[in-house]
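Need tokens for this chain, all 184 residues.
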Amino acid sequence: MALGERLGRLLAPGDVVALRGELGAGKTQFVRGACRGAGVPRDEVASPSFAIVATYRGRLPVHHADLYRVADYDELYGTGFCDLVGREGATLVEWADRVPEALPDDRLEILLSHDPRRPSARRLEIVGTGARHAALARALGRPRRRPRAARQSPRRPEKRGAGRRGRGPSEGPRPRGPKSRVRE
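Here are the structure tokens for all 184 residues:
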């Protein structure tokens, strides 16, 4: 959800985010995080599986589409979805691979998958096509910096067994950032 919030803070009008992944991969949770980052109240965001498209108001309109139940482009067209894409708000699309012809070529694609070694963890592959979405992919692919106050002071002695980056042995390995590729 934290990466979704980062994306939400970066979203601009016209952005299109295509989310792909199996059932339970975390697409709706990612959208909830992005909406939170875009200033949408938490209790307003739900998966629009039956309504197909929901629009939320934050610092910009966020159009959230769930294409799981959509059979083809004609059915999707009848929902008004095509009138929203690339317009005044950002568009987040779950199950984007169901009707790929409905999305613009320039977009941010995020593939979510389960990590077989850690059931509660997810792997993300982020691909940005077009200059704007490539910049988003680069921004999301960068590790987030800790706030200055949280960084370890050079004067403070490092705990035994903490390793080079100050992580204690009970904290496990440092999480890796999402894999990202850029197509411009």
